[in-house]
Amino acid sequence: MLVLMLIIGSIGCIACFVFDTTAGCIASGMIVITIALYLFDAWHRYKRMSELASEIDLIISGKQELNIQKYAEGEFSILECEITKLTVRLREQAELLRADKLRLADSIADISHQIRTPLTTLNLSAAALRDPSLTEEKRNEHLLKIHRQLVRIDWLVSALLKIARFDADAVELKHERIELKRLIELSSEPLLIPMELKNQTLNFEASGFMTGDLSWTAEAISNILKNCTEHMGAGKINVFAHENPLYSEIIIHDSGCGIAKEDLPHLFERFYRGKNPSENGVGIGLALSRMIITRQNGTIKAENHRDGGAMFTVRFYKGIV
User: Fold this and answer.
1) Taking the model in full, what pTM does it have?
2) What 3-state class would DSSP assign to 292?
3) Measured CA angle at 111 (ends 105, 116), to 5 deg
């Protein structure tokens, strides 16, 4: 642009000098002033752009906050908009990455702790089995311990993989019409024999339907029922399921000792085992249940029933909440 201005100005000055010396001098002065103003404006503009670039570097490195107001006029208005969006996006991504790293570190520590416990029991039982003087009764006892710990590890790994799939958004949930009675029957089926051994009974009343994924929803309800069976002795679990114009609701109430007040805010957190954890509990069943339920436009609430025992209320809404 400067070269172009010099060429045009020179031609204009020569033309003015041809006709009149005074006009040529005036034209030369105007050209010099114009070029000087252009150079000053270009210097000022590039100085501001350099300052803005330096501030962006500081913002990206987290050493400075962005004050975008001074770039709100003229040709910088478009740049302001783009930088604002870029800065917000970079900060959001940085926070997400930082949170993911912390969550990953905590999860790895929790997983290693949870798996280390049954592995220790397995090693002790395996070492005991090497004793040639071990009686048949003790041998069967150690074999039963090994079987229980292997089942526990299998369930733990399976649950962790399911949670990882939800975290990675790799689960495609179906939207099918589900009969609530069928859902409760499918959810309670794996627990009927363990409940019978503990002298526990399951009573349920179900009517109506819901929309969701049958297998995953049954997994969520089954984890809630499993939690109830693990935190109560002999007794009963009552399940009431019904549908209304707004939502489908499932209420699970056990006859146990209830939930400690300090545990209620953390009950659905991963690896939280509570004040009085069960022997086989690892603290991920309810967390997985919440993930499954919330992904299907649902809510879950835990509280103590007025007549005693814990109560879980699950609702699947028919509209967006």
Assistant:
1) 0.64
2) helix
3) 130
